[in-house]
Design a protein that fits this description.
This protein is α+β, with helices and mostly antiparallel strands. The chain has helices at residues 12-24, 51-56, 121-134, 167-172, 174-187, 212-232, 277-297, 303-306, 354-371, 396-404, 407-413, 415-432, 437-443, and strands at residues 29-35, 41-47, 59-61, 86-90, 96-99, 102-111, 137-150, 191-196, 202-207, 236-238, 254-260, 263-264, 316-321, 326-331, 342-345. The chain binds glutamic acid and magnesium ion.
Length: 450
Amino acid sequence: MPLSESLPVLSDADVAQYRAELGTAGVRVLVGSVVDMGGVARAKSVPLRRIGEFHRSGMGASPTWGSFCVDNTIVFTERLGVVGDLRLRADLAAARAIGDGYAWAPAEVFGQDGEEWPGCARGRLRRVQAAAEAAGLTATVGHELEFTLTDAAGEPLPERRWQPYGLGTLLEHGGLAAELTDALEEAGAPVEQVHAEFGTGQFEVSLSPSAPLESADRVVLARLVIGRVVRAHGLLASFSPLPFGGGAGNGAHVHLSLERAGVPLLSGGQGPHGLTREGAAMLGGIVAGLPETVALLAGSVLSFARLVPGSWAGAYACWGLENREAAVRLVAATRGNPHGANVEVKCGDPAANVYLATAAVLGLAVRGVARGAELPPEVRVDPSTDPSAVRLPVDQGAALDALAASALARDIVGDDILDATLAVRRHEQTTYGELPVPALADRFRFAWTS
Ligand code: GLU
Ligand code: MG
């Protein structure tokens, strides 16, 4: 079924049905959240009895919800000030029980008059997905979540006990990993795989692919579930792009594939590695658009301490088959890859707003197909050894300047979101941009933890 362009209003009977189902699952409270421009999830909660109001009328919020900063400052913009009122409407069809009497649902932002608010990130991804569908393209998105465990005081776990991808390490945290997997599956965020990552204390959970909006919702859900399970084990989870100065960064890699009338664009064609003509244009559109949109995927004051060559974060605007240093890694359709060919956009991190990061990648892909974007030459080596390879912006200021000047980004996310994102990120840059990386990492270690 095509995605509706606006959050539909459910009938009383449907609301009653959701209330009954959630009640049966032991839910007493529904928490509904939105993700702000700085990548932080903000929430309101209601007793189960009031979920109809949360869905139909929405819970009140000031327009400044669009301009909260990661350090709890509010930046005022022309459109986002002290006057006015917004309504957060919970999407009950996406509500999931998360245990302890709680359910969670994604919310979308409206005006009091019931008009969609143009600053709503989820609403924007909804429209980008609907536009892709209207152009005959069906998108599938899969997210990888990297996060770093710390002790209860926020300090690193012992380094000498950490084996990257180690069996011993995974099993040392086996109780937590198993509980995490169970809790995610149960909450409705199906898991592909879990492993101990490279950095000390770092784990990765890959979520199963799904439609773009649903997948982005599952990231928000998964992050709150991970936060809770990890806390229950007496630890904390950092979703910072760089939890500790000098350590490994946390990425938020996004996998995307497109189909037209059930036929994949990234395999079965005559182009390199089986790309179809449209698949090549999709890839070309993403690679060409990343330098000016990377601040939507990795825009925080810590993002550029992570996005450096040699860290598998994809610091170069190029593509290559299974090239883990390219911002765009092509994963071909092989027997080893049951979901079929896809592109992995690696440069993003968990400080982004996942709805906007997804909208950017999908928006670039769809526009690339529409204009028949040229596929640049493949980079088959480490791009840092290829003098023709283009670095993505190297610091937050350069990335924000590129975003501010990008008509493409403005077209994909709209004026309200673009201007609010710039205001929030510029605040980070001017206030904290000069801090040494270890101090910065320390200050914001848990800023993106739910
Ligand atoms: N942690 C790396 C990043 O920041 C990614 C490592 C990997 O490829 O899994 O993106
Ligand atoms: Mg990884």
